[in-house]
């Protein structure tokens, strides 16, 4: 008998991820998607983390450092480049 795969609700996962990103931004000066991976359950789709960062940025909680990337520490990412993020400065939210 094959194990049943449970699909996650995309909107629920994204909402949880954005809340997690905001929490990480409160605790760390800089962070990447690797930090989100360590704190969140795995997404059903590999694009969801990027969508969550885009949403957190558009809501005015975080901003990326222009041209600042670091190597991923997640083995499956094979040392790929990750954007470096920071909490948006107070009063800077649009």
Please outline what is shown here.
The protein has 94 residues and is of the alpha+beta class.
Describe the structure.
The chain has 94 residues and is an alpha+beta fold. It has a single domain (10-87), classed as Arc Repressor Mutant, subunit A (Orthogonal Bundle), CATH 1.10.10. It contains three helices and two strands, in the order αααββ. Strands 1-2 form a two-stranded antiparallel sheet. It is globular. It starts with 9 loop residues before the first helix and ends in a 7-residue tail after the last strand. The model has no long low-confidence stretch (mean pLDDT 87).
What descriptive keywords fit this protein?
94 residues, alpha+beta, Arc Repressor Mutant, subunit A, two-stranded antiparallel sheet, 3 helices, 18% strand
In what range is the share of β-strand residues?
Answer: 15-25%
Strand order of the largest sheet: 1-2
CATH topology: Arc Repressor Mutant, subunit A
Distance between the termini: 52 Å
**Form type:** globular
What's the arrangement of secondary structure elements?
Elements: H1 10-27, H2 33-39, H3 48-58, E1 62-71, E2 81-87
Antiparallel strand pairs: 1-2
Helix pairs in contact: 1-3
